[in-house]
Design goal:
- The protein is an alpha/beta fold.
- The protein has a domain of about 190 residues: TIM Barrel, CATH 3.20.20.
- It contains eleven helices and ten strands.
- The strands form two sheets. An eight-stranded parallel beta barrel has the order 1-2-3-4-5-6-7-10, surrounded by seven helices. Strands 8-9 form a two-stranded antiparallel sheet.
- Strand 3, helix 4 and strand 4 form a beta-alpha-beta unit.
Amino acid sequence: MKIGIGSYALFWEWHDHPQPLSIEDMVDRASDLDCEVFEICDDPRIEAYDADALAALRARAEAAGLALQLGTRGIAPAHLAAYIDIARALGASVLRSMVQREDAEQGAEHIVDLLSLSTQALEAADVTLALETYEQIPTALLLATIEGVGSDRIGVCLDPANVVAALELPNDVIDAAASRTVDLHVKDFAFARRDGWVGFTYSGARMGEGQLDLARELSAVYADGRSPAAIVEHWLPWQGDSATTVAMERVWTDATIAALRASAPAHHSDQTPNRKQGDPQ
């Protein structure tokens, strides 16, 4: 298992921030945290990078000992083709995306037909498409469509936090999707009573303080020799000001990385920090 962070671990440092992080800054942060992977996820700025900029970003990551992954939303063939090209330029072997509600509502056959139009491009680019579990598509339907396409180039991006809004149980989704998981998003989550004890808030939590069964998740996903990267993310509510929110975001990131390293040593590919180019052997 390789441990990394994604754009959603840095959400408040590039949204509503006086000096938003660039993608290059995010790569550097992942390196500073001794990660092995950085996932550029739902960051539209990457679409404006030309060939030279993509090559420079790839070189920056490689110099830091980081593998890159890429993320977007949607399964329209033209959209996926554009992102497959970006993934190829970045040397990213995993492209995460989502089947959105308008496609999910048209059923399995429609989704299979769309995905089948992208399998040749995925194969040619040596990229695996990871479709995320979340509330806009029932997990059973997501798995059925992946099975229907029948390509090793399409699997699951597992995030059990996302499915609760569709009244699915996170542990059920872990058990159902683990064997097809090619990308793992790791974040804790919790319910809390709202003020006045009327209703609940469902939100992110610091790792270990919420309801994610991390041990169960890792055991299921990394069984039978599977080795997707574990990408740290958060659902951190705004804390009233940027400085306070970003400080908490960093604490949550540190806590999740520490939990992954501490709870899954048998799954971690390399327990030593990344070596950068030029470091002594």
